[in-house]
Fold these 2 entries.
Entry 1:
Amino acid sequence: KGNFPAFSDIPADEIIDETLQTIAECGIAIEINTSGKTKLSGGWYPADAILERALHFGVDVTFGSDAHVPGRVGDERDEVARRLKDIGFREWVYFKGKDKKVVPL
């Protein structure tokens, strides 16, 4: 839903699936970002429905708090890890330089 909740009703399943397939084929990760809780969207993004589709297509996930102050670094990391496990993910990734590192949840 992002910062534009009215757009969440636009049918986009097909293009979302195509995009996630391309992301998976290219070996790119998507980020679960917790900064949405400080914005109009009121929560993390992407939405669980997109994360479920990402898992289906084999897309790697990473975590970001989009922290602009030290107190927000890693904000809600444990909650995100639990949610990802509930969805079915077993690992997430981070990058050191351009090298992808896989970490169990």
Entry 2:
Amino acid sequence: FFTDFVTGKGTLDQDDWAWDEFLAFLRLAKTPPANILLSSYWTMGAVRHGDYIAKVRFTPDPAAAAAVVRRDIDPTSAAEVFRPALQAELQERPYAFDIQVQLCTDLERMPVEDLTVEWPEKLSPSVTVARLRLPQQDISSPENLAKMDALSFTPWRVTAEHAPLGNIMRARKEVYRHSSIARHKLNEQPRTEPRSADEVLGPAR
């Protein structure tokens, strides 16, 4: 596996061997399983932030994260472990994520095209610009699971001011679209694009 991955099964010149990608994979593999409420989530690639270039992340609100009871997850303990832990936490208490923006201040050290390069916080610290609040709720019903299973996610469902940037993000647009089409066809589910937030979330209160 190691040789095949790094050398592209012998198709890559030595200068192009995928060392950065492999080391990123190793770092990810070393991350211990935990409740998904305790993880941070990034846009992967860069996006527009008005007239600027940025990366966006959702990171747990410290107070909300401290209240989580079911923290460590054992993937071998059951067929499904992450969803039951999430259900139990949200049944007991609300939760919140801080939405943070990191602006690109140096295209050489904070590249758009090479996603294996971590943007240094010392060059541009992430700034909290909003908060995502998850109310206390019961998400365990089969109807809720069916609605979730019919959803499609894409980084391109945004306004022009926040459009994704870079080759990988452009590739994701088509990969995600074709994946959604295939999954909905296999599951015999209708596939539609929402025309407003109300169609997904219900009218604002």
